[in-house]
Amino acid sequence: MPSILTVGISDADIFFQNRYKSIIVDEDAYLLELIRYIHLNSLRSGIVTDLTTLSSWPFSGYSALAGNAKQSWLETEATLSYFSTDPSVARRKLAEFMHDGIFRGKRPEFTGGGLKRSMLAASNQARQERKAYDYR
């Protein structure tokens, strides 16, 4: 008897097939936009109501970046170093950076499983090299 998840799904279709991708991030600006986009997803989806709540929500890596939680699996220093060498200054600047991203809404360049590329790509060659890491 088939399970609920496999009813109507052929052998070629796998639940959540192609949902997660691995892409090369070769631009610091693109990395920062990805960090902001990923961490604001909980806010955009309505799971949390504002940036203050997000900064203390235990199921978000942003709470660790904000200094309000310890996540043993998350290394925060590398991300914070993009904003300042002083952790308190870095956290303040990160919060400003995150706040600026709240009103940008859905970002089409970050949808499509990594197939749509940001305009931050350095060259056509870089885009060609990244295609090797997409599985679609």
Structure commentary:
The chain has six helices and no strands. It is an all-alpha fold and 136 residues long. Helix 1 packs across helix 5 (87-102). 15% of the residues are buried. The model is unreliable at 1-7, 11-16, 113-123 and 132-136 (pLDDT under 50).
- Radius of gyration, Cα only, in angstroms? 18 Å
Instruction: Quote the distance from N terminus to C terminus.
Output: 31 Å
Helix content: 40-55%
What integer is the average pLDDT? 74
Unreliable stretches (pLDDT < 50, length at least 5) are 1-7, 11-16, 113-123, 132-136
With helices defined by DSSP (H or I, 4 residues minimum), what is the helix count? 6
Q: Report the order of strands and helices.
A: HHHHHH
Comma- or semicolon-separated keywords:
globular; 136 residues; mainly alpha
Nutshell version of this structure?
With 136 residues, this protein is mainly alpha-helical. It has helices at residues 28-44, 51-56, 61-65, 77-80, 87-102, 124-131. It contains 6 helices and no strands.
What are the SSEs and their pairings?
Layout: H1 28-44, H2 51-56, H3 61-65, H4 77-80, H5 87-102, H6 124-131
